[in-house]
Write a structure and sequence with these properties.
3-stranded antiparallel sheet; 9 strands; 29% helix; alpha/beta
Length: 244
């Protein structure tokens, strides 16, 4: 399936527009399902997204049916400023009526390999599985780094795209920080994948990926081809080299 690209003026407009689409998607799913699984991302645009959801949509979704997971997490405590869970909790989760049992955070304070095993067991036990016995998220929200990475699948660990595990322990190429990340097979099994990409630093690689040119195969993001729907919400700066 070809990706759907939606362009907006700036980061706040991407966040606000995606918030409306996300809520509409949740309304459709909650009308037909008692369990909706969502994988969240960290980053600047998700922070804005969480704020919009808390301020404008806190009471418009039946959050009791929604279960939140994370596509990746830094191996830090939940109250650390770098914690993806911590940001989501501060900006959104603490402001909506969602059961604590519906929040499935990565325990970043734990030993990384032990936690990767624990988290993949938790994911596998809650999510429905597809015909290939792979856990399937209803909604997967992702970003893309300026090096083309997504979740915490970096170019130097692109093998995680083909991993048979649900989770792997990633290493940031510059800081050496350990992270827990879901793998390519889990992302690509998702029913609906949304990329939120903003900023001019992303423009060259995004263009290569969309045009299948240059070194696009080296970028993990280019290998995200889900069984379900694929959307890119981008701002003008990130889309600068895409053309019409």
């Amino acid at each position: 399936m070809n990706p759907v690209i939606k362009k907006y003026s700036d980061n706040p407009e991407v966040a606000r527009s995606f918030a409306s689409e996300f809520v509409a998607k949740l309304h459709t799913l909650t009308a037909n399902q008692d369990l909706i699984t969502v994988s969240l991302s960290g980053g600047s645009t998700p922070k804005l997204l969480f704020q919009v959801l808390a301020e404008e949509h806190a009471d418009s979704v039946d959050w009791t049916k929604v279960h939140f997971f994370w596509g990746d997490e830094r191996c830090v405590a939940p109250d650390d400023a770098e914690s993806n869970y911590g940001e989501a909790n501060r900006l959104l989760l603490s402001k909506i009526k969602i059961p604590s049992a519906n929040i499935h955070r990565v325990l970043g304070e734990n030993e990384p390999n032990t936690e990767a095993t624990r988290y993949e067991t938790e994911i596998s036990s809650i999510l429905p599985h597809n015909r290939d016995n792979i856990p399937t998220f209803d909604i997967m929200i992702l970003g893309m780094g300026a090096d083309g990475h997504t979740a915490s699948i970096f170019p130097h660990e692109i093998c995680f795209l083909e991993s048979k595990r649900i989770c792997e322990v990633a290493t940031h190429p510059e800081s050496g920080q350990k992270r827990i990340t879901i793998t390519g097979q889990i992302i690509n099994a998702s029913s609906c994948v949304y990329f939120l990409i903003t900023g001019e630093s992303k423009a060259p690689i995004l263009a290569e990926i969309m045009q299948k040119s240059g070194s696009y195969r080296d970028y993990p993001t280019s290998h995200i081809i889900p069984e379900g729907e694929l959307f890119f919400f981008v701002d003008q700066s990130a889309a600068a080299q895409l053309g019409e």
